[in-house]
């Protein structure tokens, strides 16, 4: 993570793409555009690990991986319906580091650090200041992700609330990205959750096995395998180009240890809003024993309107997938609506 690329200008330079490439969405060749891109990066810093960068196509301004992480001037547009908290995270806060939106399960946020900054992230404006584990950030230096950190980390309120919630039998680790925590720190967190007798399942949502696959260490796999909790890993991958041999090997280490792996993707304009691409993505995953789980309609976070695909188009794409793939290989197409009791099928 220390070696990650931290500016869109550097991304384009390394890919040999002119910064004024007019064919790239949101990058018209003007000085005003450069100013707007700088504004977008100030609000949400660029952060791209080299392992993910290495899968991008040099010279291609429409590369689907580049599009997910490259700051563009469209992010500064104010678009009606796009807000700072489109999924109702603030209203779902129970205590420091803990959200609950759905019955029987809670969402724990032990860290605000991510292994990559996706420009469509629905938590790009989330306030992590009261529940952020800062140790990784401190070890990497102030430029590691651009997050403002204040106060010491504390998971105690989260664990205490779990003890007082006998109706909760599943804990979902999210963030940030929980796998940016070190193996020893993650072990301490899992031990605290395992000690709560009514919790039966642990679900880890992470992009790290995709963007930095070597994070799936033998120690991590052994720890998850040994847990008394039924442990599931949900990865986030939007395009088949994101899957290389290192990713395949990392996923296989988890599955071979008996840890189920699911994939969720976000429907993104210019990335995967194409039936052939989605079909290939689903095939690549089921061939690796991973079930496509959700295809999310874009959460309407401020700055991401240029990624939105019309729901009618999304339904057409999923119908095409149903004619091409076995049922278990077709993800459920859903939206997350703030305050709803579950994900909403489209």
Question: Would you write up a description of this structure?
Answer:
With 346 residues, this protein is of the alpha/beta class. It has 2 domains: 69 residues, no CATH class; 256 residues, Aldolase class I (TIM Barrel, Alpha-Beta Barrel). It is built from 12 helices and 10 strands. The longest helix is centred in the C-terminal third of the chain and has 14 residues. The radius of gyration is 20 Å and the shape is globular. The protein starts with 7 loop residues before the first helix and ends with a strand.
List keywords for this structure.
2 domains; single chain; 10-stranded mixed beta sheet; alpha/beta; TIM Barrel; globular; 346 residues; 12 helices; 31% helix
Structure summary:
The protein has 346 residues and is α/β, with parallel strands linked by helices.
Helix content: 25-40%
- Structurally, the number of domains stands at 2
Count of helix runs: 12
Radius of gyration: 20 Å
Q: Return the structural class.
A: alpha/beta
| Low-pLDDT residue intervals, each spanning 5 or more residues | 26-30, 134-152
Query: How far is the N terminus from the C terminus?
Result: 37 Å
What's the CATH H-level superfamily name of the largest domain? Answer: Aldolase class I
Strand order of the largest sheet: 1-2-3-4-5-6-7-8-9-10
Estimate the strand proportion. Answer: 5-15%
Shape: globular
Largest sheet: 10 strands, mixed
Give the CATH architecture of the largest domain: Alpha-Beta Barrel
CATH class of the largest domain: Alpha Beta
Q: Per CATH, what is the topology of the largest domain? A: TIM Barrel
Mean pLDDT level: 89
């Amino acid at each position: 993570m220390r070696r990650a690329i931290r500016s869109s200008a550097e991304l384009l330079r390394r890919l040999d793409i002119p910064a004024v490439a007019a064919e790239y969405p949101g990058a018209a060749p003007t000085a005003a555009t450069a100013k707007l891109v700088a504004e977008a990066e100030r609000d949400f810093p660029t952060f791209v690990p080299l392992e993910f960068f290495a899968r991008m196509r040099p010279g291609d301004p429409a590369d689907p991986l580049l599009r997910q992480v490259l700051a563009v001037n469209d992010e500064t547009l104010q678009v009606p319906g796009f807000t700072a908290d489109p999924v109702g995270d603030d209203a779902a806060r129970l205590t420091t580091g803990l959200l609950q939106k759905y019955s029987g399960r809670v969402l724990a946020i032990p860290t605000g650090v991510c292994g990559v900054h996706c420009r469509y992230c629905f938590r790009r404006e989330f306030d992590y200041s009261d529940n952020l584990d800062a140790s990784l950030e401190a070890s990497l230096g102030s430029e590691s992700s651009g997050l403002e950190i204040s106060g010491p980390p504390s998971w105690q309120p989260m664990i205490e609330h779990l003890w007082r919630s006998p109706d909760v039998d599943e804990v979902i680790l999210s963030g940030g990205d929980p796998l940016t925590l070190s193996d020893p720190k993650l072990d301490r967190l899992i031990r605290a959750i395992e000690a709560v007798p009514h919790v039966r399942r642990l679900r880890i949502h992470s992009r790290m096995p995709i963007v930095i696959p070597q994070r799936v260490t033998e120690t991590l796999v052994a720890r998850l395998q040994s847990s008394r909790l039924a442990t599931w890993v949900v990865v986030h991958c939007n395009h088949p180009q994101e899957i290389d041999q290192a990713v395949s090997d990392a996923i296989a280490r988890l599955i071979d240890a008996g840890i189920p792996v699911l994939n969720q993707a976000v429907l993104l304009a210019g990335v995967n809003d194409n039936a052939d691409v989605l079909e290939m993505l689903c095939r690549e995953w089921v061939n690796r024993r991973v079930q496509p789980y959700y295809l999310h309609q874009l959460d309407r976070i401020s700055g991401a309107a240029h990624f939105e695909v019309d729901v009618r188009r999304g339904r057409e794409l999923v119908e095409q997938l149903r004619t091409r793939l076995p049922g278990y290989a077709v993800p459920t197409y859903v939206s997350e609506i703030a305050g709803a009791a579950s994900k909403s099928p489209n």
